[in-house]
Design a protein that fits this description.
This protein has 75 residues and is an alpha+beta fold. It has helices at residues 21-24, 28-34, 38-42, and strands spanning 7-12, 46-49, 69-74. A three-stranded antiparallel β-sheet has the order 2-1-3, with no helix packed on it. The mean pLDDT is 81.
Length: 75
């Protein structure tokens, strides 16, 4: 992933970046429907990449196949 000069990208393990996985734990039916496990809740996290960043492999951040949502902001 290459971030442009006027952007900031936040990637989340959380499928809905407005509700944390810990908050979702209170709704077991929602967790099951989204395929979220208790392990996912323990590892709930996000990464922020600033302008001009280049990311070659998300496994370098222990995020391989974990991104469920992302937010792009123009700065």
């Amino acid at each position: 992933m290459k971030i442009g000069p006027n952007a900031k990208v936040t990637v989340f393990e959380n499928p809905n970046f407005k509700m944390t996985l810990k908050e979702m734990a209170r709704y077991p039916d929602l967790m099951r429907s989204l395929g979220i496990t208790e392990k996912d809740i323990r590892e709930d996290s996000e990464l922020i990449f600033n302008a001009n960043a280049m990311i070659h492999d998300f496994s370098d951040f222990n995020f391989h196949k974990k991104i469920r949502s992302l937010k792009v902001e123009c700065i």
